[in-house]
Design goal:
Layout (H helix, E strand, L loop, with lengths): L1 H4 L5 H11 L6 H13 L3 H6 L5 E2 L19 E6 L3 H16 L3 E2 L8 E6 L4 H23 L8 E6 H13 L5 E3 L7 H7 L6 E3 L22 E5 L1 E2 L10 H5 L3 E2 L2 H13 L4 E5 L7 E2 L26 E2 H11 L4 E5 L8 H9 L6 E3 L7 H7 L5 H14 L4 E8 L6 H14 L3 E6 L7 H5 L6 H24 L5 E9 L6 E4 L5 E4 L4 E2 L5 E2 L6 E9 L3 E10 L1 H6 L12
Parallel strand pairs: 1-7, 2-3, 2-4, 4-5, 5-6, 6-7, 8-11, 11-14, 15-16, 16-17, 20-24
Antiparallel strand pairs: 9-10, 12-13, 18-19, 18-23, 19-20, 21-22, 23-24
Helix pairs in contact: 2-3, 10-11, 11-12, 15-17
The structure holds 5'-deoxyadenosine (5AD) and iron/sulfur cluster.
Keywords: 4Fe-4S, Iron, Iron-sulfur, Metal-binding, S-adenosyl-L-methionine
Cofactor: [4Fe-4S] cluster
Family: Belongs to the methylthiotransferase family. MiaB subfamily.
Amino acid sequence: MFFIKRKIYSTRQISGFLAKSCRCFSDSVRLVNIKNKIKEGPGLKEFIEHSAEPVLLDRPRIPYLSNNILDTSKRKVYFDVYGCQMNLSDTDIVWSILKKEGFEKTEVEEEADIFLVMTCAIRENAETKIWHRLDHLRGFKRRRELSKNKLRPVKIGLLGCMAERLKEKLIEKEKAVDVVAGPDSYRDLPRLLALTESGQTAVNVLLSLDETYADVVPVRLNQDSVSAFISIMRGCDNMCTYCIVPFTRGRERSRPVASIVDEVRQLADQGVKEVTLLGQNVNSYRDISEHTEKDETKLTEGFKTVYKSKTGGLRFADLLDKVSSVNPEMRIRFTAAHPKDFPDEVLQIISERSNICKLLHLPAQSGSSAVLQRMRRGYTRDAYLSLVEHARSTIPGVGLSTDMICGFCGETEEEFQETLSLMEIVDYNVAFLFSYSMREKTTAYRRYKDDVPEEVKRDRHYRMIELYRRKCQILNEAEIGNTHLVLVEGSAKKTGQIMGRNEMYLKVLFDQSEILSEDGGRRKAKPGDYVAVKIVGARSSVLNGVPLFHSSVREFYRDVGWGERTKLRV
Ligand code: 5AD
Ligand code: SF4
């Protein structure tokens, strides 16, 4: 009643009203009971905080709603995941939380009661896609309301990075969704969903300083996959001027080593053969729950950081050591790493362990020192190139990948040419190439002008892609005749051939046939197998090969060191 009238009454006023309306009750004992109940009920504070609709829950618990409002009665959830690998990993966390509460999962829209859209806000085109999807879902919801199935109303929940950024627009202006949950409030989802049962819209976008979901054992949406993602940390403290991530995902915090190692062990037991450790900046990982004497991070010469280095605790090299020791047959990958803190210990352990993939993600973002400074990346072009040289001398044959942005505020043609020349020099095996998209809240939004015209951005983007493809073609052709260790994932949709990935995460296709197995017999390749494949053809994004024999990581690299692996000719 108090919410409908949108007025706030004190408990004394409420008991006054009740007293008046209870005059007709001859039984005064009942009145006393009611008064007592009111005294025990919520105070004025709770009503003031949550008086306006929609109910904005900026904290995980609502003191006066008991847990028994949750009636999940086998409602079916349909997940839509957009954006980065971190979103895939977060969806596994969300699914674990909901499954425990009795929800079910479906991959068929018609069966769904709840649509949960895991969103990305990093660039405008990512958001545009999600708005289109929400339009579709709203149409679906309306059709359900009008159909004979109306007793099963559809609820739409928006999760992830768009949640914090767009909460008002989503609810008040667009009335697009029933639930909005930010990256740190997934534990609250069952309660938020329960609130929607009475027609309310529920929001929790509070960012946390310590939430890492360390105790939530993720349940993989894709149980058949031979690879899995593990979030080792959340948030980012770097504040690159173009990036919205620190605002949507909050401050950087690391998950304890022990819980990560446990998860890797469980995944290994389930037959997973490859894990990718995820964070916005994995090499600033620190498990401060473990006390050590270790010093603070020493940045490589030529690199600086905007935040105070953390001290003590276990660091990324320690984590890599422990994770790669769980099962020497499990491939370990990691992303993303900021070039500013790539300590020798990390490079050393990568070079020593045959199951840590020799592919370093060193996102340069630009090849121009002036642009890097405007981006607040904390390094110059020369410092970046020295790091590349150092990594290549420590880990011979190491592959490199990058992210590049063209058309950042004030970028001149000469500055863009420096990005192209960096790509020419470094020979990246993998590159993610973006056209700059101005985001509200970022430093660039406040300080600079998004002054590179759209058509110039498009043209530069196209030129980056052209160069990248040309370089990849050359790099890949050089692999013809070499033998790669390929982890089989399944079969290629178009050709029906077997598809797997090599150490550089490049797709390798080959025809199915019976090949020599470890026990001396012959058998076909299946998902999860490691197969030695001789490369016979190359395009810019895929290699073609001939399968030679089944192998293991240890066997494959036993006789040849990593640097020699591409020379292995059988
Ligand atoms: N515009 C274009 N690309 C961006 N990235 C981050 N913010 C933006 C933006 N505003 C890119 C960076 C980052 C990757 C994940 O996305 O290259 O490394
Ligand atoms: Fe964004 Fe920079 Fe943090 Fe990467 S390191 S998430 S680009 S702020």
